[in-house]
Give the backbone structure.
Amino acid sequence: AHVGVRPDGTITLTYVNVVAGAGGFVDQDFQIKYAQCLPVPAPGTPACSPPVLVHLEINPLPFGGFLAAQDFRIATYPKHASRSDDGGMETYVVWDDCKVPLYFGNVCPDADIFFKATLDSGGTWFPLGAPAPINDGLRDQMFHWVSADPATGNIYIMYYSAFPDLFNHGLHILLSHIHPAPGITGVDGTQVITTTLTDPASDPILGNIFFG
């Protein structure tokens, strides 16, 4: 689970509820959930709203799964950030998943990062159908982090990307940003942060079975 605090002090929470997918025991569908709580003075308990469904992800990076080009541990974990924009509150929920169906129920050949956002505290999530891409380019994108800049209102998403590597193995760190604008908007700029590729297989003992 990922816990945050909106600019108005509301506590926000995103997490996944794993359910059996259409493919049986190995196949996992992820219900991406969102809830919020109003803080109260100690020793009281925060008053939380019932969790709502952000998106049903039928191609998640499953628990016990792998990327086709890597075998370090990875799974879909949603993260979120909120900003005050045009007098209202916007919350962006971001997660990585598999852009195409999994091989053998647990191997992802193309991981990418997507989002949905709400203007009404989780009542409606945009886009209404499929989630919008943070980065759906060539190669894998994964291990994201998201934050909101209270001074500018920018939403920042940082993540690893294998975009320059033909073998989908070497990784750069990328930073995408969503600038304030009326309504829910998408990524309007991405920059490469690192100057050299990271090789997850460089550890002489672990190889690439662990990264991060």
About this structure: Residues 87 and 182 are 10 Å apart (CA to CA). The mean pLDDT is 89.
